[in-house]
Amino acid sequence: MESGIVEKILIVDDERSMRDVLSIMLKRAGYDVTVASDGEEAIAHIDKELFDLVITDLKMPKAGGLEVLKAVKESSPESVVLIITAYASTESVVEAMKLGAYDYLTKPFQVDEVQLIIRNALEKRRLSTENILLKREMASQSSFAQIIGQSEAMQKVFDVVRKVADTKSNVLISGESGTGKELIARAIHHNSARSRLPFVTVNCSAMPEPLLESELFGHVKGAFTGAVFNKAGLFEMANGGSIFLDEIGETTPAMQVKLLRVIQEREFRRVGGTRDVKVDVRIIAATNKDLEKAVAEGTFREDLYYRLDVIPILLPPLRHRTGDIPVLAQHFLERFARASRKPVPSLTPETMSLLVAHEWKGNVRELENLIERVVAFASEPLITEAHISGWLHRPAVSPKAYPTDLPVDGLDLEGLINSIEKDLLLKALEKAKWVKKKAARLLQLNTRSFRYRLEKYAIKGGRE
């Protein structure tokens, strides 16, 4: 067993001596063991609890091993089932294997034999869980693979990561969207003693509270409409490792209470469940909100904030570390060119100056997306200002107030009309993603008239 993880095993046999032998052996090995004297009792346990392994006799009164096996596969398909039988050649054993049993043991069996089969069965369960986590991680993983930053601000962040990675303390990472909070969380986990165990991510703003609760804590069969089997939650799947709670500031007060209990007690209860589940999980949370302000406004619990904010890490926005922009831009150019099997293009000094001067409200993610688009459309070895100006997101144009009555001293009518016209041109371009034909249609202008107005106000960039 991995350190910190206690696997749960259900033993089902109508012979007390067999139950006792297996129970004593498995408890000594450190497993959490539950016993049932017949199939009906076992099925009642299976409906309420999630087991990593079920060891069941094949022939029993009331309900036999096949019924137990079917109940396991209906309630928790990822649980592993081991069949015990005195008649290895019977059709029932063949049927059990077809229904999804992992293996079978023939009575009488050697202790060494059963220990080996149990270890292999649980390893299969662990690999199945790791495969689920891997697929989830690949789906949620940030599109750039490493943290890049030579600026003093980022070096300070790296220094904090190195110092706190191997502690057990909770971490709260703050920063604007796109600054790389998940990458820092991964760096903390992968540089800790927990690195061999799961790193599980969950976006707390991506789902409504009932779904988030089920996702985090799991549920039992029948807990709500659609709960057709028992499901382990992400806290349980992260046991022994780390869980990354992104956008923690978006959680509701009710969810904050549940999270506080997990942090304080290191246990939780599945949705619809009656039994507490204990976990050993390091919590790394992230937010783009000012949680201190949220606490003052009463939208975020103060006790939860202080539980999370044991080690605070503040990620600077890209505009505050402009010295990293050339390094990041070159990294993205090389990566996307390699992926597209193209030669790596170069940026002119004027183009790089334009990138450094840009506000980057979307931070590193915005820069990454820009370079990906530029590489996709580039057909020349040199990237100029003309290649990127149309892709840069302009700041939203704030509407200018115009008078509803004529002032006493008059007004500059032509200047006011020009100001309104320019604002609308920019808004149309923004809405059309800087595609000129689409922007012209939004303003019900023909292409020639639209181009004339762009030249009139010196609006450059965009695509035809």
What's the structural blueprint in terms of helices and strands?
Layout: E1 8-12, H1 16-28, E2 32-36, H2 39-48, E3 53-57, H3 65-75, E4 80-85, H4 91-98, E5 103-106, H5 111-140, H6 152-164, E6 171-174, H7 181-190, E7 199-203, H8 209-217, E8 218-219, E9 231-232, H9 234-237, E10 242-246, H10 253-265, E11 267-269, E12 276-278, E13 282-287, H11 291-297, H12 302-308, E14 311-314, H13 325-339, E15 346-347, H14 349-357, H15 363-377, E16 382-383, H16 385-389, H17 413-431, H18 436-442, H19 447-456
Helical content, roughly?
40-55%
Which consecutive residue ranges, at least 5 long each, have pLDDT under 50? 138-145, 395-400
Rg measurement, Å? 30 Å
- Estimate the mean pLDDT confidence: 84
Give an overview of the whole structure.
The chain has 19 helices and 16 strands. The chain has about 475 residues and is of the alpha/beta class. It has a five-stranded parallel beta sheet, sandwiched between helices. The radius of gyration is 30 Å and the shape is elongated. Residues about 140-145 and about 395-400 have low confidence and may be disordered.
